[in-house]
User: Which sequence fits this backbone?
């Protein structure tokens, strides 16, 4: 025995086709910036940055700084990882490392390694917690 089939009260009409895209306007081009324009000169020396390296601003943005540098300095008032900055600015990691290396050499930002927790907890701490829980 098959279950009864539901029928629609109002049959669905097919959707109209989407309108064609507007023709491009003359003189208006939407070319994205090339990464070497954003990152500047690609020197041989790069800072050893990891995806989890924390970046903190140590200066305020100036009117003469590049838009990417200004955005980085405004975002880095609190520590943010390089991966987060890359996602917020929609730049690949390679361009971020070049940009951050320039900013590190100019002392605009500081880089910190993230806090690494011990893989094994301290035994005395665990015993203190256990004794405290037993007293409850």
Assistant:
């Amino acid at each position: 025995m098959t279950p009864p089939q539901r029928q629609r009260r109002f049959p669905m009409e097919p959707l109209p086709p989407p309108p064609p895209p507007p023709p491009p306007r003359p003189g208006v081009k939407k070319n994205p910036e090339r990464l070497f324009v954003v990152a500047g000169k690609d020197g041989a020396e790069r800072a050893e940055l990891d995806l989890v390296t924390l970046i903190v601003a140590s200066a305020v943005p100036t009117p003469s700084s590049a838009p990417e540098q200004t955005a980085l300095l405004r975002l880095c008032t609190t520590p943010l990882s390089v991966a987060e900055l890359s996602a917020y600015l929609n730049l690949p990691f390679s361009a971020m490392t070049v940009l951050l290396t320039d900013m590190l050499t100019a002392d605009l930002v500081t880089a910190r390694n993230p806090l690494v927790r011990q893989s094994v907890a301290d035994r005395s701490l665990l015993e203190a917690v256990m004794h405290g829980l037993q007293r409850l």
